[in-house]
Write a structure and sequence with these properties.
It catalyses: a uridine in tRNA = a pseudouridine in tRNA; a uridine in mRNA = a pseudouridine in mRNA; uridine(38/39/40) in tRNA = pseudouridine(38/39/40) in tRNA. Belongs to the tRNA pseudouridine synthase TruA family. Its main location: nucleus. The structure is a single chain. This protein is an alpha+beta fold and 393 residues long. It contains 10 helices and 12 strands. The N terminus and C terminus are likely disordered.
């Protein structure tokens, strides 16, 4: 029986005291069954025009003015990157409007939950959506210029951008005056990082490589909590460069995963050592069970640079159906976005608000030599404060 016949034909058997017979217009009266079926049929036909598939979206955004990546459904006071993305997906016709408030129905998952003001050049989200024509152009037409979707790729049905990610690379852009000796702090931007100091900075950063207990670099983690052990693959400060008469440098760190505030505290401690507020021995001491006071560098300058899916690519990247999750073809767009929206925002905000200089003035209130034993269990170990997916740096 065709769909049209099924809709028009009234039921053969109506209950006693039942509803009125069809009046010739396919309306069975007060129960509204035909209207509902016609409406459902129209929606189904519309949905069948485009296939619904599991995909990943490559996103870049400047986090200034937003309260992080992850949305808070029902809250309009604190706008997030995901609020903008979901609205654009609905308006462009990629997802049903009634699923916008409950993205779990679209199997939505972010790779990393960046915090307030933090930017990204290579954020990945996975979800099911309708593959409409000119999909990227239509999504971007409903996004502000500081948020872009730069790429889309099909993935396996069970793909989860958080769980399938092998590693994340973050960048942290800061004025090099952060590494000046404390007696030589320059507010006029005239400081220049010398090679000897850069070598010391990178020697200290290299000590983070490998697996360490980072319970002192986050909150809500006890010293014997297994989840506080994290593996760092690489960390380096690149050559400095000038922007608007001020010298900056970019720190790159790659790790399997990071906890809330971990990267900013890793950088904050090295700054404190290089400037002469703390001895180098504090780094080794911070991985022990004692509580160590570690300063947290400002959030401005932190950028989610890239996420890595090596295991997934090895298994599915060349299966003839799915593409490897690498973005070489989009690299030019990524670089252009950073140059237009991310780096200028960091430079201008630093020059206007002087967040790094203000933070450096607080370093002398930290007691870097004092330690305090903290019994296991004195912290709430049930809180998930991972940066990647359920928390943020």
């Amino acid at each position: 029986m065709s769909e049209e016949q099924h809709v028009v034909k009234p039921p053969a058997d109506r209950s006693e005291g039942g509803k009125r017979q069809a009046d010739g217009n396919g309306n069975w009266g007060d129960d509204g069954h035909v209207e509902k079926r016609l409406k459902a049929s129209t929606n189904e036909q519309e949905e069948r025009r485009f296939p619904k598939r599991k995909v990943v979206l490559l996103m870049a955004y400047s986090g200034k003015g937003y309260y992080g990546m992850q949305r808070n459904v029902g809250s309009t006071q604190f706008k997030t990157i995901e609020d903008e993305l979901v609205m654009a997906l609905v308006k462009s016709g990629c997802i049903p409007e009634n699923h916008g408030a409950e993205m779990k129905k679209m199997s939505f998952q972010r790779c990393a939950r960046t915090d307030k003001g933090v930017s990204a050049a290579g954020q990945i989200v996975s979800l099911k959506l309708w593959l409409i024509d000119d999909i990227l152009d239509k999504i971007n037409s409903h996004l502000p210029s500081q948020i872009r979707v730069l790429g889309l790729k099909r993935v396996t049905a069970g793909f989860n951008s958080k769980n399938k990610c092998d590693a994340r690379t973050y960048a942290y852009m800061l004025p090099t005056t952060a590494f000046a000796p404390k007696e030589l702090d320059h507010e006029d931007g005239s400081y220049r990082l010398d090679k000897e100091t850069l070598l010391k900075v990178n020697r200290l950063f290299s000590c983070y490589k490998g697996t360490h207990n980072f319970h002192n670099y986050t909150s809500q983690k006890g010293p014997r909590d297994p989840s506080a052990r994290r593996y760092i693959m690489d960390m380096v400060c690149e050559e400095p460069f000038l922007r608007q008469g001020m010298e900056f440098a970019v720190i790159k760190v790659k790790g399997q995963s990071f906890m809330m505030h971990q990267i900013r505290k890793m950088i904050g401690l090295v700054i404190a050592v290089v400037k002469g507020y703390a001895s180098e021995s504090i780094q080794q001491r911070s991985w022990g069970e004692e509580k160590v006071d570690i300063p947290k560098a400002p959030g401005l300058g932190l950028v989610l640079e890239k996420v890595h899916f090596e295991k997934y690519n090895k298994r599915f990247g060349d299966d003839g159906v799915h593409e490897p999750l690498v973005w070489d073809q989009e690299e030019e767009q990524i670089t252009a976005f950073k140059e237009e929206h991310i780096y200028p925002t960091i430079v201008e905000t630093e020059q206007d608000e002087k967040s790094m200089l203000s933070w450096m003035k607080t370093l002398d209130i930290h007691d870097f030599e004092a330690t305090a034993s903290e019994p296991q269990g004195s912290r709430d170990l049930t809180q998930d404060d991972d940066e990647d997916g359920n928390g943020s740096d």
